[in-house]
Structure formats: structure tokens, C-alpha cells
Amino acid sequence: MRQPLAYELHDLLERGRDRQLRLAVTGLSRSGKTAFLTSLVNQLRHAGLEARLDLLPAARQGRLLGARRVSQQDLSVPRFPYDQAMSALAETPPRWPEPTHGISELRLVLRYRPAKRGWFAGETRQLTLDLFDYPGEWLLDLPLLAHNYLSWCRSQQALAGEQRRTHFASWHASVDSLDPAKEADEADLAEIAERYAEGLRAAREAGFADLQPGRFLLPGDLAGAPVLQFFPLPGLSEADPAALAALPPESNYATLARRFHHYQKHIVKPFYRDHFRRFDRQIVLVDLLGALNAGPERFEDLSRALANLMQSFDYGKRSLLSRLFAPRIDRLAIAATKADHVTPEQHPRLVALLEALLADPLKDLRFASVPVRALSLAAIRASEAREVEHRGQRTPALRATGLDGEPMLLYPGEVPERLPDSAFWARQGFSYPSFRPLPMEGGALPHIRMDTALDWLIGDKLQ
Ligand code: GDP
User: In this structure, which residue's CA is closest to atom 27 in ligand 1?
Assistant: First the structure.
């Protein structure tokens, strides 16, 4: 046990040290990252004022004194557009913020009073919180690092379900006749790659999530660069690897394989090395209700995409990630977002479903001793919970406004507690219309369990 004097010394050191935490937010497109980060910054800025953060002890105890934005350290990363997001929400009628498309950053300095008073009663401390937001699609590229071009082609072919294939029809029409051994034609490859990217985009629009390469969906400043002009060659499942490897460097196969390796080395690895490796904590957002609404094939696809994505948090000694990058995330949260789309008594079921969906990756994480917590939340609550009389019984319901301004009173249905079976899909009794954000009252955004998320992600640093 430490002696009292040692405690005081420890306190003194803590105070002298620049306390800093790098917290990253990710999730697939439309999972709610922009809404989450906007709300997180908003709640912390209004902590101690009108923000409702009872489940964050530092706020409940009145020790969290507020947060101020300061200039970020890394000037090459765009700043998260918090002001634009808040202006959209403050419009009449309110609008959802425009989503971000690449990595962005924002730095907050939190002031708080420590829970334990030492010699210096009434002292305040600071925590510098660096917030990052980046597309979960980029994490889908980690498994790609475990492949060479041939094994990647084969893995992609194995994915082709019936619905998924329809989105790639135009790509198939051109790639199926491409001879791997023929000399590559730049313009042809660019054209076929564009069709492949279109297929990926169409599949994403239709709700598919297990899509590689991730940068084809969100190229940022790489749009049109030759490094993004490759695609998997179909029909190689039976091909002889040695014969393919012996093809001349100008052949289609060798050219595509070179670009694939370039993509691994110059796009995927630098993200992990320069950003991911430096995050301390991470929250992964999942639009589980959206997938539930979209039907079995897409739900299955989300499950696969998440299993892929979660590999980026598997720190087991033998994991690809640990071998390559030695990351240091010491706490992870996984959240089912937009919980305001179901009535409150369904929230525990939503968490149970999330845990069921991620059962295998969660087991691996717990095995690798990465503390992880699953929860459900609404970053920006857009509905109000009500009770209505239905056939003489009081039943829960939601009141909200549709995107077109139409008022709604609805019971969205039951969330299955386990992975949905065919009986659930046959009933499909789930209703998920988009809601318009509530008009702003005061400065703090209404939310569900942002305080629980904050407590798990930064609460221990505010002790
Ligand atoms: P991103 O692509 O991950 O940044 O996702 P966004 O944050 O842009 O969210 C996508 C859409 O989901 C938004 O435009 C909203 O329609 C909806 N959304 C996000 N968060 C919430 C929430 O907390 N409640 C509700 N009802 N809808 C949300």
C-alpha cells in the first residue's frame, strides 16, 4: 500500500504532467459518427451548465467545470466541423449535420476538480482530450494486409451473394472477359476499376458493409489516383499460383497485383502507423437498427463487416495488428446508435443483440484483455418516449417528426434479443423511418446515455 506522503507526491506529479487522452470515434458510413462527435463536444462544453450527464460522476458531483476548444497539434488533419454541425441543428427546421468523409480532429481542454482532495483543496486540473473521427471503412482494409493479391481475389469472390452481385453487374460485364495474361491497357484498367468502385458504392447504398478496398468508398484526396485503379480478378479459384506469378510484369495480372501491394504499403499501413497506433481509447458505432430494418442479407453482411472491422482491436500477441503496429488502445466501447428509434424498454434488448452479433470478436477481445463495453445510445435524441392506450392497455410509444415535417406517434416494434431467425424476417414487424432532430432548447443537445459512454471512455481520467 502506498503511504500518505507517497500519495501526495503522486498527486503533485500528476498535476505537473500534461494529461492527455486521444479518443477516436469510428463506425461505418451513416452509423452516426458525426452526430456522436458533435454531441460529445456539445455535452462536455455544457457540462456543469445545462447538459444532463448524471451518469458521469465528475459531472454529477459538479467537479467537471467545462471544456474549451484549442488548436489541435497535427495541422495536416482537417478540423472536425463542430460549428457547422451545430448551426445545422439550430436551423428552423433543424437539420442533421453533413457527415464527415475522412479523418478529422478536434482538441478540447477539460477543467475539473479531482475527486480526492489532497493538500490543495479547491485546486483544478486539466485534461487535454484529442478527439478523432475516421471512417470504419478504413478498418475493413486491415484484413487486406493479410493477403497477397491472389488470395485477396479469392476471398472477394467468396463473398458474392445473389443480391450483392446485382450491384456489380456492369463490372462483371467488363472484367469477365479480361485475360490475366494479356498486356495491360491503362485506360481499360481505369475503366474497370471505376465500375468496381461504382459497384462498391451501389452495394453500400443498398446497405452492404463488407466492402473492400475501403478507400474506394471514401477516397478523400486519392480520387482518380492510379493506386485506386485495381480490383479483384474473378475466376482465379482454380488458377495455378506459380503460373500466375510467372506472368510478365506488363500483364493485367502482374499490374493489378503491383497496385494492390502499393495500396497495402502506401495507403493502408500509413493510416495504422500514423493515426490508429496512437489512439488511447476508441468507440465503434453501429447502426444495428438500420441493418435490422434492411433485411437478412444485409444484416448478415453487417455482421461480417463488423467481424472484419473488429480485427483492428484484436491485440492478441499473434494478431496481425500487434505484429505490424503495436497499438495501445486500452479501452474500447461498442455502441448501437440511434436508440431513440425504439421505445426505452427495448434498449436492453438492443444491447443484447449487439453482444450476440459481436459474440466472437468480443470473446477474442476479452481473451486478449482489452476492456470493452457494449451499450446503446442516441447521440442526438430525436424522439420522445410516450405511453398510449391501446386496446385498453397502456403501451410504450414514440413521438417524433418525420424528415418531411409530418408528426408521428409510433410503436417501432420489438428488437430481437438474439440473432434474428427466419421467423423474425418473415414477420419483419420493424419500422424505422428517419426522424428530424428536435428543435434546440438551450445549448445542450438531448441524448440517451451519452453520459454512460463518456464515463466509460474518459471517466477514470476525471478522478
Ligand atoms: P456518419 O456517416 O457515421 O457520420 O453518420 P451521421 O452522424 O451523419 O448519421 C447519419 C444519419 O443517422 C443522420 O443524418 C441522422 O439521420 C441519423 N442519426 C445519427 N445519430 C442519430 C441519433 O442519435 N438519433 C436519430 N434519431 N438519428 C440519428
Answer: 338
Residue 413 CA to residue 431 CA, distance in Å, equals 7
CB of 171 closer than 6 A to ligand 1?
no
Higher pLDDT, 407 or 313: 407
C-alpha 260 – ligand 1 centre gap (Å): 33
- The residue segments making up the domain with residue 219 are 147-274
Verify that 369 and 283 share a domain, yes or no. yes
**Which CATH number goes with the domain that contains 112?**
3.40.50.300
The answer to whether residue 9 is domain-embedded is no
**How far is the C-alpha of 303 from the C-alpha of 262, rounded, in Å?**
29
Q: Is 175 in the pocket of ligand 1 (CB under 6 A)?
A: no
Residue 220: is its pLDDT beyond 60?
A: yes
Strand partners, 107: 70, 130
My answer on whether 258 and 358 are in the same domain is no
Q: Do 251 and 269 lie in a common domain?
A: yes
Please check the confidence at residue 218 and state whether its pLDDT lies above 80: no
Regarding whether 356 and 391 lie in a shared domain, the answer is: no
| Whether 39 and 156 share a structural domain | no
Tens digit of each residue's pLDDT (9 = 90 or more) over 262-302 = 999 999 998 888 888 889 999 999 999 998 888 888 888 88
Strand boundaries in 312-446, DSSP class E: 331-336, 372-376, 383-390, 393-401, 407-410
Residue 12 lies in a domain: no
Average confidence (pLDDT) over 170-176: 93
Are 369 and 397 in the same domain? no
From ligand 1's centre to the CA of 405, what distance in Å?
17
Domain count, the chain: 3
Give the distance (Å) from ligand 1 centre to CA of residue 311.
Answer: 25
How large is the ipTM?
0.99
Gap from CA of 257 to ligand 1 centroid (Å): 37
Residues 95 and 242 both lie in one domain: no
State which of 26, 434, 436 you would mutate to test the pocket of ligand 1, scoring each by most atoms of that ligand within 8 A of its C-beta.
434
Do 344 and 390 fall into the same domain? no
The cell numbers describing 417, all together, are: 434479443
Q: What is the pLDDT of residues 65-124, one digit of tens each?
A: 989 998 877 777 889 999 999 999 999 999 999 998 888 999 999 999 988 766 666 688
94 part of a folded domain: yes
Please tell me if the CB atom of residue 401 comes closer than 6 angstroms to any atom of ligand 1.
no
Question: Residue 453: which of 36, 27, 35 has the closest Cα?
Answer: 36
Regarding pTM above 0.90, the answer is no
Tell me what pLDDT residue 309 has: 86
What is the predicted pLDDT for the residue at 5?
Answer: 58
Question: Which residues are CB-contacts of 192 (< 8 A; sequence separation ≥ 6)?
Answer: 171, 174, 175, 178, 231
Atom of ligand 1 nearest to the CA of 377: 23
Helical packing angle, 33-45 and 82-90, nearest 10°: 90
